[in-house]
């Protein structure tokens, strides 16, 4: 993946052209999905799709003037910093407020892209066009925010997250939760393998500590290097990496701490293991709930993914330790 700041003017225009084409197709898909339930909103999405096609045509014109007819095969997925989109448009009969939130995020991303691109454009005509498109995408964002004003009740609208809060959740809360999930689950096997292999609390704690800190460092660097934040406004990559790394380490330390029970105590190993088992139980259910709450995952699906997956990892660790 390339950093946004390393893109040439030709590559910036090529990414913009492919993005406008994709967004237009997404809006038409939304229009088709809403046609029977909300015909007025469907017409609005058709108009937005037509505008995106107009944007693409204007971008193509200036691209051909500057660089000819060949477009390099670069898409936004090839550029570090774009938001990772969930393909919700493949789902039928989506709630209108879910579609609205997705559109707000899409338009916010497009606005930031054009604003950043216009700042680094060298050609005056390209700079002017990108600046104009940034303003038009901002108007789309405002339009999307008002999309359901006459359909949703005031109470429902008041409870919905604003676009920038949604981006904050996606880019700060989500890395932390991903780290917590990774730290809690990935350290189960080495911790309990060491526990049942040695029946020594202190040695088990050292294994858990090493696994937790190692996973935290790995996750922290992975998140920090995934995006410099210049395009999406996700903030400092090191702050995001620190959040992800710290939560990963805490996820592993939670069930490692019980093995600080001194080995000199009667039945020390079983006391520590019982406490660790209780901690693991509450950790996995808490993560399933948080994943359901903030990552738009159905609760039962989150339970299946986290609790069942964690139980399997735990069983594997015990089996290896007792082998």
Brief rundown of the structure:
The protein has helices at 9-34, 39-67, 96-120, 124-145, 154-159, 163-186, 188-198, 201-226, 237-253, 268-294, 299-322, and strands spanning 2-3, 79-80.
Q: Layout of helices and strands, plus pairs?
A:
Layout: E1 2-3, H1 9-34, H2 39-67, E2 79-80, H3 96-120, H4 124-145, H5 154-159, H6 163-186, H7 188-198, H8 201-226, H9 237-253, H10 268-294, H11 299-322
Parallel strand pairs: 1-2
Write up this protein.
This protein is mostly helical and 323 residues long. The protein folds into two domains: 158 residues, Ferritin, core subunit, four-helix bundle (Ferritin); 154 residues, no CATH class. The protein contains eleven helices and two strands, in the order E-H-H-E-H-H-H-H-H-H-H-H-H. A two-stranded parallel sheet has the order 1-2. The longest helix has 29 residues. The radius of gyration is 25 Å and the shape is elongated.
Largest sheet: 2 strands, parallel
Number of DSSP helical runs? 11
Spatial order of strands in the largest sheet: 1-2
* Protein structure class: mainly alpha
CATH class of the largest domain: Mainly Alpha
Distance between the termini: 43 Å
CATH topology tier name of the largest domain: Ferritin
Shape: elongated
Tally of separate domains: 2
Name the CATH superfamily assignment of the largest domain: Ferritin, core subunit, four-helix bundle
């Amino acid at each position: 993946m390339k950093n946004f700041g390393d893109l040439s003017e030709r590559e910036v225009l090529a990414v913009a052209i492919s993005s406008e084409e994709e967004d237009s197709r997404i809006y038409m898909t939304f229009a088709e999905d809403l046609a029977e339930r909300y015909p007025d909103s469907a017409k609005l999405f058709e108009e937005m799709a037509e505008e995106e096609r107009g944007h693409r045509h204007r971008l193509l014109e200036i691209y051909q003037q500057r660089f000819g007819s060949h477009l390099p095969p670069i898409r936004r997925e090839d550029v570090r910093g774009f938001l990772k989109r969930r393909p919700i448009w493949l789902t039928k009969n989506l709630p209108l407020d879910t579609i609205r939130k997705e559109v707000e995020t899409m338009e916010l991303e497009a606005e930031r892209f054009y604003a950043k691109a216009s700042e680094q454009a060298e050609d005056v005509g390209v700079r002017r066009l990108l600046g104009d498109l940034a303003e038009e995408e901002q108007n789309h964002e405002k339009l999307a925010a008002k999309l359901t004003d006459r359909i949703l009740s005031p109470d429902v609208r008041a409870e919905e997250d604003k676009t920038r809060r949604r981006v904050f959740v996606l880019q700060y809360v989500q890395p932390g939760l991903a780290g917590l999930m990774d730290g809690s689950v990935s350290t189960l096997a080495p911790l309990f393998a060491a526990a049942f292999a040695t029946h020594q609390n202190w040695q088990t704690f050292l294994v858990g500590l090493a696994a937790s800190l190692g996973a935290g460092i790995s996750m922290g660097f992975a998140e920090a290097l995934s995006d410099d934040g210049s395009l999406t406004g996700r903030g400092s990559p090191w702050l995001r990496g620190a959040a992800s790394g710290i939560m990963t380490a805490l996820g592993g330390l939670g069930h490692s701490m019980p093995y600080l029970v001194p080995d000199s105590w009667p039945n020390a190993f079983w006391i520590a293991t019982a406490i660790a088992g209780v901690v693991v139980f509450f950790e996995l259910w808490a993560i399933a709930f948080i994943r359901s709450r903030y990552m738009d995952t159905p609760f039962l699906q989150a339970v299946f993914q986290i609790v069942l997956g964690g139980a399997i990892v735990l069983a594997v660790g015990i089996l290896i330790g007792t082998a």
